[in-house]
Specification:
The chain has 344 residues and is an alpha/beta fold. It has two domains: 131 residues, 3-Layer(aba) Sandwich (Rossmann fold), CATH 3.40.50.720; 183 residues, NAD(P)-binding Rossmann-like Domain (Rossmann fold, 3-Layer(aba) Sandwich). The protein contains 13 helices and twelve strands. The strands form two sheets. The chain has a seven-stranded parallel sheet with strand order 8-7-6-9-10-11-12, sandwiched between helices. Strands 2-1-3-4-5 form a five-stranded parallel sheet. It is elongated. The N terminus is likely disordered.
Amino acid sequence: MKTLTPALVLLAASALAADRKILILHTDRQSWVSNEAALAKYRADAESGADIIVARSPAEFAREVPNADAIIGGVSRDLYPQARKLKWVQTISAGVEQYSFWPEFVNSSVTLTNCKVVQGPTIADHAFAMLLALTRGLDFYIPNRVKKEWGGRGDRAATTTELPGMTAVIIGAGGIGTQIAQRAHGFSMKVIGVDPEPVPVSNYFSRIVPPDRLNEVLPQADVVFVSAPLTPKSEHMISGPQFDAMKRGAYFVAVSRGRLYDKAALVKALDSKKLAGAGLDVTDPEPLPPTDSLWNFDNVVITPHIASAAEGSNQRRIGVISENIRRFAKGEPLINVVNKAKGY
């Protein structure tokens, strides 16, 4: 029996590694994922361990799926049966709810990774921008620029307040929730977290309770932040009873997923003046139709699911993607692996 020379062994290993294909769908909306700089970084980190394939159209993406060992961005239910070689999917967001409600994928051997934590600073900034807009009356005064009206201090004095001394309840004390807690702590607020996992002790949370104790802490909240992932267990976890449990004059800020709260119950809480205001970067559905009643409230700040949008956030996400490409190409354990059964 002939033995292979070291050179032939290396050549055979290189040929085997090159069979690994990592597929990316380029889109104009999220071009930062696959622009020239990002692709250069991915290819440098993959070295000869994997080929980076960029599909420039959905049709091209569909043609490449059957030969893909990994997909950056995600794969649809329609295409998934064709992905016979698929071993790994990397999402570019923290949320993975498109897979959590999909038993065939959850029960598969495909590894799912996400971009948790790295978007936290940007989303937390956005959450506090919304809260400050409401507590400082910016939601009222900013439209005066269009009308070219100066306005007066007394026009919004009744609802203008300060943050020190307030209590914040943060639903979802993970990467994003911890960043929100850090900012709340910086404003001298008391912070209570709600999370199903044993979150490490920090200076930012006064305590953390499990979701089944949510209704116990809601009456203490001057502001409720929603930063939890969407899973079958968390869907509509904030509905009528939870809004009823909140104190009159509290604020509600949602920055993770719109299906975590019941929109009709929120509208009722706003209409009855139970809530002082709401900041919503996420709604259900998205985009929010022009006829939706949420548009009718002057004390609701709505943004189109853009809390994570920032160059810093994008660069940190590219860092996670690139590191996982390096690890996948070398056969090393991936980072940010999602527990598919839990959905985060």
